[in-house]
Amino acid sequence: MITDCHIHIQPVEMFNPAALAAMKKKRENFAQIEEFCRSPKAFLKHMDATGIDRAVLINYVAPEVIGFTAGVNQFVADYVKADPKRLIPCGSLHPRHTRNIMADVEQLVKLGIRLIKIHPPHQLLFPNDYRAGVKELEIIYRAAEANGIPVMFHTGTSIFPGARNKYGDPIHVDDVAVDFPKLRILLAHGGRPLWMQTAFFLVRRHPNVYLDISGIPPKALLKYFPRLHDIAGKTLFGTDWPGPGVPDIKQNLDDFRALLLPDPAKQDILSKTALSIWPA
Amino acid sequence: MLLSPPAMELMRRQQLDFERVLEFTRSPKAFLEYMDGQGIDRAVLVNSASPEVTGYPTGMNKVAAEYAAADPKRLISCGSLHPRHTKNVMADVEEIVRLGLRLIKVHPPHQLFFPNDYLKGVKELEILYRAAEANHIPVMFHTGTSIFPGARSKYGDPMALDDVAVDFPNLTIIMAHGGRPLWTDTAFFLVRRHANVYLDISSIPPSQLLRYFPRLEEIAGKTMFGSDWPGPGVRDIRENLDAIRALPITAQARQQILGGTALKIWPQA
Question: Which residues of A are less than 8 Å from B162 in CB distance?
Answer without folding.
Answer: 164-166
